Amino acid sequence: MDQINTDQIKTVCVYCGSGPGSNPRFVEAAQALGKAFAENNIRLVYGGGSVGLMGAIAKSTLDHGGLVTGIIPDFLRSREHMLKRVQEMIVTPDMHERKRLMFEHSDAFVALPGGVGTLEELVEQVTWQQLGRHTKPVLLANIDGFWEPLFALLTHMRETKFIRPPFEIDILKADQVEDIVPRLRAAAARAPAGAKEMAPELARKL
């Protein structure tokens, strides 16, 4: 078996809801993932809020001795109750700058359950990956099957030839939180050397 270089994943951006959702397992998963990041010396990059799943994962990472970078647009500072405990908080003028910085600060991306904002951020990273702009791992944390409707839609897109070679997409899937970090590391180890970064000027254009 090839040796996995665990240093390849040092920061992970997590997209997730600013609410807790209806299933207690969503919050439990966010807390467990924050703990896993801290124990594996992985810095969390997230949306900067203190409520919902965002707050749950950030607080758990901090409570277990981990490092957190929050990136929040100015207009959401009060709405999402910016978490002041984090080691680094970046306030941006708008959503575009927020997303660009989240990309630049992260080695991989994970989507926990969330709403349309979570979906929009996730799909943007998948689109950039599909167009060959980066090879950073993108993973769906499929807690209690939350993302199954999206996987079904992607299958439908393939069947109707809207997702086709050479524009295939590679979305990782983990039904259990404990599988997330190992799958991100394994995917990063498989990525072509030097192909993980998008030039800042290109990111700005997108």
Annotate the secondary structure layout.
Blueprint: E1 11-15, H1 24-39, E2 43-46, H2 52-63, E3 68-73, E4 88-92, H3 95-104, E5 108-111, H4 116-130, E6 138-141, H5 148-159, E7 172-174, H6 180-190, H7 200-205
Parallel strand pairs: 1-2, 1-5, 2-3, 3-4, 5-6, 6-7
Helix pairs in contact: 1-2
GO biological process, one term: cytokinin biosynthetic process
GO cellular component, one term: cytosol
Pfam families: Lysine_decarbox (PF03641)
Verbal overview:
With 206 residues, this protein is of the alpha/beta class. It has a single domain (11-186), classed as Rossmann fold (3-Layer(aba) Sandwich), CATH 3.40.50. Helices cover 40% and strands 15% of the residues. It is built from seven helices and seven strands, in the order E-H-E-H-E-E-H-E-H-E-H-E-H-H. The protein has helices at 24-39, 52-63, 95-104, 116-130, 148-159, 180-190, 200-205; strands spanning 11-15, 43-46, 68-73, 88-92, 108-111, 138-141, 172-174. It has a seven-stranded parallel sheet with strand order 4-3-2-1-5-6-7, with helices on both faces. Helix 1 packs parallel to helix 2 (52-63). It is globular and about 45 Å long. The termini are far apart.
